[in-house]
Structures are given as structure tokens and as C-alpha cells.
Write a structure and sequence with these properties.
With 396 residues, the protein is mainly alpha-helical. It has 14 helices and seven strands. Helices cover 61% and strands 4% of the residues.
Length: 396
């Protein structure tokens, strides 16, 4: 915390307190996010703004991946992990809106991901500039993008790359079903459920019993060892020192992984594992009007809101509503998306580097991705808005 204060008092207050920084920080200092109602037209404009910004996040890279923008440090280098699941979102949008140019963008990104795949079959963590070793979670997210491009193009090189990655994931999985080797920090984490889902999805084309067995083995290990009766997950944070109060971002990863896995396997236990914590978070939100950034084993919240996690959990609520039609899940998602749209509007008058983007935290100096617009935050806002539209159109 002290390092952060020194860094931003020295760099932020003296040099970039103008333009984008002044507008966003000023709004977070003197105005709260509205929980008002945004029209469907506003929502459609929000979708377009997300897509435009993600295109900019690719255009600013030296390669064909997607980066993030920081108010102090500027554009990062590309993230292999998030580029993978951004492809998935943009392909979905492109198919719905006849955007062949976006398919071309996504294909170029997929080709870049093929080039940087490790000999083992995995993909590195962090940005390409960090030159890190391959990691289980990040590899799972690249699968999402490559498989989306495979389904769109029919080119088997993308499926073969996925299968090489899944062979590696199967080979390094522990006997009990956990991933520890090549896991982030080399420790087991339950948010690898978000790796199991794309393995199961790709396997609808690969039809390899080993892939399905290994994915379900990890999911079953989580259920048997890591979930409390109230739905809270042990070993869910992306740190060690705050593992007793994981961030909403990784909690939502875990829930979403179980939801998609339940859909792909028709396993009711996986669906229940997701609904229990999602419903608890929904109750908290509807009662208080907010979601904290972290939650302990008793679901007591702490720290400022993580907008990335808010977008993710709204997606989870929408997916649950799509299955069980419980109105409160749709109500909660609609309200939380209104907050996210208000957060997005803070950037509409800024430069192309921020216009339409979603910051990691609210206020922007919060602990998670502070003073930054991580590309995955805008990706998940796009996903939430698109899924909400799908449900609206289905209900009409």
C-alpha cells in the first residue's frame, strides 16, 4: 500500500493530471456511480463502445494480441491469456452483426497465439513482454479463442493447437484432480474450473474421453475438498496472503466455470455448486446495493468494488436465470449492469485510449488494477451486455 501511495503521488499527481486522468479521477472523487436505469438504446451503445475500445486495444499492440491501458504507464504489451477469451467475445459479436472485419482481427490474433504456443503445448502467464513460463489457467483461456476461430473457419490447425494444449494439461494434472505444477504460484486453485469448461467445450469436437475425464476430475476435486456448505470456495484467491478473503474476480471465474461445465455435462451437482455462491452474492447485492471486492468465509465483504468481478458475476446471474428463470437473478443482473454502464460512461469523453473502456476498480484508485483499464474488464462488460440482449430478445 505504501509503495502504491509513493508511486501515484509521485507520478500521477505531478505528470498526467490532465485529459483522461483528470476526467476519470475527478468523477470518481466527486460523484458516485448511478444506479439509475439505462435504456436499451444505452445498452446497445455500450456494446458498440466496448467493441470499439477492444479494437483500439489491439491496434495499439506491436503484434496481433490485445493489451490494456494504464493512466500512468500507457499501453501494456499483449496478454496471451486475455487475448484468447477476448477472441471468443468478438467472434460472438461479429457473427451477430455480420462483422467480417472482426473475424479477420480475431483470426490474426489466433494465428499470433499459435506462434507463441510453448513446445509443451501451454501458454505463458502475464503479458508477452514478461516472458513467463506456461501456466494452466492462462492456457485454458487461450483455448476459448482458438476454438471459436476453429468453429468459424473450420481450419483444423486451431483445433490441433487446442488438443496439444489439452494433452499437456492432462499430462501435468495431479492424481487427485488438482493442478499444482505450472499453476499460478505453483499452488492449487479452484478457479481452474474456468479451465475445465473450455476443455469440455473443445472436446465436443475432439471427442476424446481423456479430456472429459480430466476436466471432470478437477471439478469433482473442487466439490469434494474446497467448497463450504454456504457456497464459499477455499483456495480461490489469486494471492496467498489474502486467500482467506478472495476477490470477486476469481470467485466469479470459479462460479462461471461450474455453470458452463454443468451445461456441457448435464451434471446437476456442478450447477448447484455454482448457484449456491451466486445466490448468496445476489442476496447481498439486492439487500445493500453494492458488492465489495473481497469476501471471507462468512460472505462478509471488504475493499472497494472490482468492476471486472461485477461484470463477471452479472454474467453468472444471467446464465442462471436462463436455466431456472428465477426473476431475482435477472433483476440483480440488470441493476448491476446499470452500475457498470455508469462506470463506462466516465470514459466516453476521453481519448480513444479510454473511450468506452471499463476500469478495473471503482473508484479507479482501488486496489485491483488501480488507475488502469484492463482489457478483460471491458471484455466481460461486453459479454454481460450481449447475454442480457440475448435474454431480452428471447423473452420478447
Amino acid at each position: 500500500m505504501i509503495k502504491s501511495v509513493i508511486k501515484y503521488s509521485g507520478n500521477f499527481l505531478l505528470s498526467p493530471i490532465h485529459g483522461d486522468a483528470r476526467k476519470v479521477v475527478g468523477r470518481d472523487l466527486f460523484a458516485s456511480l448511478s444506479n439509475g436505469t439505462f435504456t436499451n438504446e444505452d445498452r446497445l451503445k455500450g456494446i458498440e463502445a466496448c467493441v470499439d475500445w477492444l479494437e483500439s486495444a489491439q491496434d495499439h499492440m506491436r503484434d496481433d494480441g490485445f493489451g490494456s491501458y494504464h493512466l500512468i504507464e500507457g499501453w501494456s504489451t499483449s496478454y496471451p491469456e486475455t487475448s484468447g477469451y477476448i477472441i471468443d467475445s468478438l467472434v460472438s459479436y461479429a457473427k451477430q452483426n455480420d462483422r467480417k472485419d472482426l473475424i479477420e482481427r480475431c483470426t490474426k490474433c489466433a494465428d499470433w497465439l499459435l506462434k507463441i504456443q510453448k513446445p509443451s503445448g501451454g501458454w505463458q502467464s502475464m503479458t508477452i513482454g514478461d516472458q513467463r513460463p506456461e501456466v494452466v489457467f492462462n492456457t485454458g483461456q487461450v483455448l476459448r479463442g482458438l476454438y471459436a476461430v476453429y468453429l468459424q473457419t473450420g481450419n483444423k490447425k486451431y483445433l490441433e493447437s487446442c488438443e496439444k494444449a489439452m494433452d499437456w494439461l492432462c499430462d501435468i494434472q495431479e492424481e487427485d484432480g488438482a493442478w499444482r505444477k505450472h499453476a499460478f504460484m505453483n499452488v492449487e486453485r479452484v478457479y481452474d474450473s474456468y479451465v475445465d469448461a473450455p476443455i469440455l467445450d473443445v472436446n465436443t469436437s475432439s471427442n476424446n474421453p481423456r479430456y472429459a475425464e480430466k476436466a471432470c476430475k478437477n471439478l469433482d476435486w473442487i466439490l469434494s475438498n474446497k467448497q463450504a456448505k454456504n457456497g464459499w470456495f477455499k483456495d480461490c484467491d489469486n494471492t496467498l496472503h489474502k486467500n482467506d478473503r478472495p476477490i470477486l474476480h476469481t470467485i466469479a471465474y470459479t462460479i462461471d466455470g461450474f455453470l458452463d461445465s454443468a451445461r456441457l455435462t448435464s451434471n446437476q451437482d456442478y450447477f448447484t455448486a455454482a448457484v449456491t455462491p451466486a445466490k448468496k452474492l445476489l442476496e447481498i447485492y439486492l439487500a445493500t446495493g453494492k458488492l465489495n471486492g473481497r469476501f471471507n468465509e462468512n460472505w462478509k465483504g471488504s475493499e472497494n468494488a472490482i468492476l471486472t468481478g461485477c461484470a463477471q458475476i452479472s454474467i453468472c446471474w444471467l446464465k442462471i436465470y436462463r436455466e431456472n428463470k428465477e426473476p431475482k437473478f435477472l433483476e440483480g443482473a440488470n441493476k448491476l449492469i446499470n452500475v457498470l454502464l455508469a462506470a463506462q460512461q466516465r470514459t466516453f469523453s476521453g481519448s480513444e485510449s479510454v473511450r468506452g473502456a471499463l476500469s478495473g476498480s471503482y473508484p479507479i484508485w482501488g486496489r485491483y488494477e488501480n488507475f488502469a483499464f484492463p482489457n478483460w474488464a471491458t471484455k466481460y462488460l461486453l459479454d454481460a451486455l450481449m447475454l442480457e440482449q440475448e435474454i431480452i430478445n428471447t423473452n420478447v
